[in-house]
Amino acid sequence: MSSEGSIVGGRYRLDQPIGRGRAGIVWLAFDTRLFRTVAMKRMYLPVGLPPERAGQARAMAMEEGKAAARIEHPCAISVYDVLPDGADVWLVMEYIPSRGMSVFLTEYGALSAEQAAALGILLGDAMATIHAAGIVHRTLEPGTVLLADDGGVKLTDIGITGGGPHAAYRAPEVTRGGPPSPAADVFSLGATLYTAVEGVPPFGEDGTAAERPPQNAGVLTGALQKMLRSDPTIRPTMADTVIALKAITEGQERTAFVPPTAPAMPTMPVAWMAQQPGGGPPGQQAPPSLQAQPTQQIQPGPLMQLPVQQVPQAPAPPQPMVPMQPPQPMLQSPAQPTARYQPTPEQRAAAAQAMREKAAARRRMILTVAAVLCAVLIGIGVAELLFV
Asked: Exposed, middle or buried, 148 (CB in 10 Å: 0-12/13-18/19+)?
């Protein structure tokens, strides 16, 4: 059994459990080669199989991990690696601070129809990308949907058989023994969104009860009923489902799912904003509630921002009065003659001697150059006379 501090594949250190899925424990791990935090899960393998069947199960798990690693979508968890470690196969994924949708619904209750539709758009778009790659999710349910702390949505266990889908979110044809298909994923998405708004699965926890009519779905009711049709041939495709959900949200798409747990932030009163510089008449005063509580936390607007503490400033301490002194006349010093430099006779004689030496040197240089030129000209003339 793996435990904290264990090294998997000679590379990944298991630090602590962070969740539990249908296939087993999800670990927070550290990649000692690339120095990054990852999430790891030991893939489900049936126990008690003969050696040949056990080898086939490990090979199938490796193929499922490789297929999941091909998916690239903002709402799909990224798979970094799949590796065998002894008799186990481990899946290495990106780590996203989040909580499972099932945990979220248990703690905070159901979503509104509009929130569920926005969530369905993100999940449906990711599922359409998965289907375009020739992969079926197989186990879409609230337990495989992560609501990230930054407002994002991540879909996990893409194409992973694991311990099998939850009965409440399994399509009827799959329950009867049929193969998983994109149409079965549409049913699973519908059951997941139904649970998000109603708080319970549409056909009970075992998936065999009569369909429960939705009571809180509102504008989402029609889309859910189409997705939950028992006949897979008349269910909408995943792409059509996304189009229908976008129509429900009236084009107000969200790039991130905002959980309904953030409290509404108070806005600044209009009168208080009006008394700010340039915001209203100069004589307008703040509301009494703000005047009576100078330390009240005032929010700058409806956005999620840190509160700003309004603290009254303490008055400056009084300064002692100092009598003014009469101005003193400025004292002017008598003008002093400007000193001029006067060289001594010896310095004047030395300077004159230096100038004479420089002039003599220039004359010697000129005479030397002239003598060289004359010699060259004479040489040229003699050469012409000799060779004529």
From this structure: middle
